[in-house]
Each structure stands twice: as C-alpha cells, then as structure tokens.
Amino acid sequence: xxxxxxxxxxxxxxxxxxxxxxxxxxxxxxxxxxxxxxxxxxxxxxxxxxxxxxxxxxxxxxxxxxxxxxxxxxxxxxxxxxxxxxxxxxxxxxxxxxxxxxxxxxxxxxxxxxxxxxxxxxxxxxxxxxxxxxxxxxxxxxxxxxxxxxxxxxxxxxxxxxxxxxxxxxxxxxxxxxxxxxxxxxxxxxxxxxxxxxxxxxxxxxxxxxxxxxxxxxxxxxxxxxxxxxxxxxxxxxxxxxxxxxxxxxxxxxxxxxxxxxxxxxxxxxxxxxxxxxxxxxxxxxxxxxxxxxxxxxxxxxxxxxxxxxxxxxxxxxxxxxxxxxxxxxxxxxxxxxxxxxxxxxxxxxxxxxxxxxxxxxxxxxxxxxxxxxxxxxxxxxxxxxxxxx
Amino acid sequence: xxxxxxxxxxxxxxxxxxxxxxxxxxxxxxxxxxxxxxxxxxxxxxxxxxxxxxxxxxxxxxxxxxxxxxxxxxxxxxxxxxxxxxxxxxxxxxxxxxxxxxxxxxxxxxxxxxxxxxxxxxxxxxxxxxxxxxxxxxxxxxxxxxxxxxxxxxxxxxxxxxxxxxxxxxxxxxxxxxxxxxxxxxxxxxxxxxxxxxxxxxxxxxxxxxxxxxxxxxxxxxxxxxxxxxxxxxxxxxxxxxxxxxxxxxxxxxxxxxxxxxxxxxxxxxxxxxxxxxxxxxxxxxxxxxxxxxxx
Lengths: 390, 296
Ligand SMILES: Cc1ncc(C[n+]2csc(CCOP(=O)(O)OP(=O)(O)O)c2C)c(N)n1
Ligand code: SF4
Ligand SMILES: [Mg+2]
Hints:
Chain A is of the alpha/beta class.
C-alpha cells in the first residue's frame, strides 16, 4: 500500500480507519501483538512506519501484556503511544491496564470487540472490553468507520488533557472488516486540533524523578480520588473535544446520542454498530405511527450519568440492548443505566435484553422483537434473553 | 592486588531501605557509578521496589520507573523507543530485576527484548529466591537449598537454571556474570556494556543475609567464596560465542563446603548432599572451560 494524501474520501475498513486515525495523530511509539480481528490495524501501521508515512517506532513484542508494558515505558518517557487488540489480548493486558491508568498515562488503544473463549470465537460481543470497566480506562463505543477514525483523534485530545488512557471500541467484522467511504481529514487540520504531547513529568535524567513507587495508605487514596476526578473532568473534555472537532471537521458525535427520542414512549438504548440497525427499525416503527426512539451510548467510561438520566427519565419505558453478559446479574449497560436512574425522582421501568453474543446477528427483526416485548409488558424484567435456543 | 579506584560519583543515597549487608543494594551502587547520571532505571517488583524508598522519596539520583513484575525488559524497550524517536540515543536505559523477575516470570519479555536486540542494559541481581515476598524458591535457587517453599524436609530438588546459557543462546552482543566482591570487574563490565549497541545482560550474584540465613557481615565474603569455589565463576560472552573467563584464577578451587557451611539455608545438608552439589559445580565448571577453550 502506498501512502495516501489526507483530506480525501476513501473507502476503508474499520480496522484501517483506526490505522489512519493513529497515523494522523502522529503517534510516536506503537507496540502490538496480532490477534484476529485486530491484525489489519497493525499491518497497515507497519506499512506506514516502513514507508515513512508515519515517523514512529513500532515495537513488535512477544505478547499483549508486553505491548502495554512497552507503551507504559514509552509514555512515561514522553512519547505519544498507540496499540490495538481484541478479546484474549485485552484480557492478557489486564494488569498493565491498571498500571497505565494508575500511572496516569494517556495511552490510546483500539479494542476490536471479540467474544471471549472458550469456546473459541472470533466474532463480536462486548465482554472483552466491559471486563476492563474498572481499570480506569475511558471507553468509547463506535458505530461507523468515520466515527472510528475521528474517535482516535479525539481520544488523544481528551486523554492527554486529563492524563487518563482511552480505549475506543469497535465491533469485530461488522465494523473492523467492513469497508465504508470515509473522509480522511487533512493532516494540517489534525495538527491544529491535536498539538504534540507535552507531559508535565517524564523520565528525564535532567530532572530525575521516581514514578510508581510504593504509596503508603496516607497517600494512596488521594491518588485514587484524583483518578476519579480526572474521569469526571473527562466528561467535560469529551464534550469540548467533540465541539471543537465539529468546528474544524464538521462532524460531532456527542457522549450519548438521542435519535427520534422526543415524545417517545419507549426508548431503546444501544451501543456500537447495532445502533445503525436500530436507527432503521426506529424509522420503520415511526412510519407505522409508533412512538419509539433510540439512545446511543457512545462514551461508556466516564459514564455520562447525568446526560443519560436527562435523556431517559421522561420516557414511559426503557429497553436496553446488551451485547454482553455479566454472569449472575445480566447485561452490563442495563446495570449502569439502572444505577444512573436510581437516584432520580423519575424512574421509568427498565427492560434488560441480552442478544447477539459471540457475533450472532442482531437483525432488524430482533430489534423489533425487543420493542414489541417492551410495549406489550407492563412489569420490567432485569434479563430477557433474545433468540436463545433453550 | 590490583590498583583500582572506584568512580567517585555517588548516584545512590545512603538512606535506602535495604537490609544490612544487602548485596543487591551494593550492586546497584557500583552499577550506577559505572553507568553514570545519564541513565534511566526500570525496576519491576523485587526487593529493590522497597530499597528505592516509598513515595515521595527515592534513594536514586537518576530517574526511576517502577513497573510490573514481569515487564522489566519490555518496559525498558518502551523507554528506549521513546528516547530514540525523540532523538536521544545517548541516555542509558537500565533494566534492573531480581532473579524471580528474570529467570521466572519475566523470562518471556526478556527473551522478546533480547531477540529484538533492544539497546538496553539488563541487570539481574540474583539473591537466589523471591526475597521481597519472604524467601520463596525461584528458578535461581540452588540445588538442595532451603527456602520457605522448599522446607528442609523437601529442599529444592532441581539445580539452578542456567540463565546465562539462555541469554547466550539469544546471541546478544554481550552477556557477563559479576558479583559485589569484585567491584572493579563489575564496573568494568557495566562500562563495557555501555559501549556496545544492543541487548547487554549482566548476571550479578547478590548475597542476601536474611534469605541465605547468614550474618550480614558475611555478604562480601560469601560473594568471594562463591567465586573461589566456582559456584559462581565470573566470565563474559560476546555475540553468543566468545567466552572469556575472568575469575577464579586459582587452582585448585576451594571445596564448595567452605561456601555452604556459612549459610543457614544449607545447614540441613548431609555429606552426600554436599558431594552432589560439588558434582554439579564441577560439571558446570568443565563446561565453561570447554566453551572458553573452543572460542579462543
Ligand atoms: C504478577 C505478580 N505476581 C506476584 C507478585 C509478588 N511479588 C513481588 S516481588 C516478588 C518476588 C521477587 O523476587 P525476585 O525477582 O527474585 O526479587 P527479590 O525480591 O528477591 O529481590 C513477588 C513474588 C507481583 N508483584 N506480581
Ligand atoms: S531481603 Fe535480602 S535482597 Fe532484600 S533488601 Fe534484605 S538483604 Fe537485600
Ligand atoms: Mg530474588
């Protein structure tokens, strides 16, 4: 592949949209390990490094755990860093995910959502990324290839502002291997939007400091408090980053996105690519005169609880579509939404649906079934399995 | 006795948290003297996590990155990459890990870094067990030694892993053994490592009085005896091929019992046990001599 001019339209897969995003963000150190369905992300980045399109060091490590450890070393030394992985790779990184966040390093990573084994699966669901919910990584779920590319760039803006790492998440195959026409933004505009990374502190023999030393109980908790505050700040920074992005590039995504939600009696909550399918179904149902709408959750960590509350509290019923499962409890987005609404005075009933695990298609008829079920039942249910063969 | 002046520069403070007679603490002091102040230290979990001091203190006057137990070599690779891409190819990146972090849990990432020939110096200070967590056996624990997970009734049943052979098999440009009772040799080897591009590996025997069940004033003596009994010969290997023997030069060697009898971790040994240990040492010594002969 030859280097491509930026500021043009191109037909690219979700994986390559990630690579273009990283290239435009001028990442300096990349470290990654191959896993289906992430491989194309790093293949194209290898090309970019090899042909000089991107001036970066690519450390071809022997595991994902090492990939994240290498980036922790590099980011601590002041470099802008990037990696991508999926499922078992992300799980293997777990210890270092905590480390990256605790060290307050603005590492950006793409996770191509893939179901966890056993049994082996390469297809999409969200259990891999959601299992990392409490590591301190920001998580942003993407719906389209354009959003993927744009989110890589936005993620660096926010991550470097609040000194927390960020993970953008895209569905295996449905996005990763599906080509869509997208705009590759002009490099000079991206440079204007995203100045070079200048950390407050870094490993520097001229200013010797120790990073990550033992913290006794009298300071540890304050450091955790600061991480949480940084996440709170990140809610504002995502909104700001999105706003400024739209001024330069003409596109914005929001932290959440309501779709035909005004006056809706039922609101369906989705994340990731299934949102696109749901938009179609909502249009059809609206055409049939049914008062249904959609709420897409894009930024999952930090969780935009206030926005979600405001968006959902006036509807009559909420249906949450989870492509994940917390065994022994239910869908994870449903839990988050319930907890966001619990302290609100207005609490619509919430129906939790689990569908599409291990890459099973979530078709328009599945979404219709979910809406029909919610419409025809008065008592909310925590966990409704959709399409499972019993 | 040769004349030897220790470099005056002190990059380690006296207010560290090592035990009295800690070989690992002394090793760091010597190594930093040789490495100089333009050095970044990468430190995984080990006794040195504690020795370096808690937040907000540091016993080192060079930058220090604490990292997870199994990641010394790869976190150092990341530091190296970030320096290089920012135009700094001069600063020395020094990964400093214990034997557990090297022989066992960190071996995968060390092997990866060595295979990529990362431009770093990797130093394993070997106190022959997991000391930080309370003297559990590691792959570096010697044959028949007591540790808290190899109690006297079932002492360690396997000989010490040959980490040098593993590193040499990676064909890295420089691998060497050293110990604290030969500071001139240790310092020369660090300086040598500094002058070479690629992955440099130093295996430094670092007596641990509490872990070896020996009085703290014997740390240096034990380190010397380890060399004189051929338990821990000092040698260098260039490019995986050229072996040079530094110490011991004396013939014949002291019997291993001279080394073992000073350490409580070997106090349960029978005469037969000591013989078995002597046999292993002799075998390894002969192999080393063969390698030296073959490469000269
Ligand atoms: C993944 C992981 N497992 C276990 C530990 C606990 N741990 C910390 S230090 C250590 C032993 C270190 O042994 P070694 O590398 O030989 O260094 P020493 O303490 O002997 O100097 C262990 C087991 C850890 N920090 N991380
Ligand atoms: S336990 Fe051993 S290695 Fe650890 S600080 Fe004490 S003497 Fe040093
Ligand atoms: Mg040890």
